[in-house]
Amino acid sequence: ALGKLMPGEEEVAENPRARSSVLRIAERTNA
Q: Is pTM beyond 0.85 here?
């Protein structure tokens, strides 16, 4: 459902903050 919002493994490896930011967005949309 998130699609583009989900960072790929490569993207997370380059930018670890991408994962945390996506998790925050995921929590908002799910809640």
A: no
Query: Where do we find the tokens 């945390």?
Result: 20
d(CA 10, CA 30): 25
- Residues 3, 26 contacting (CB under 8 angstroms): no
Cβ neighbours of residue 21 closer than 8 Å, sequence gap 6 or more: none
The model's pLDDT over 4-26, given as tens digits with 9 standing for 90+, comes to: 556 566 666 676 666 677 777 77
Q: Classify the C-alpha dihedral 28-23-20-4 as positive or negative.
A: negative
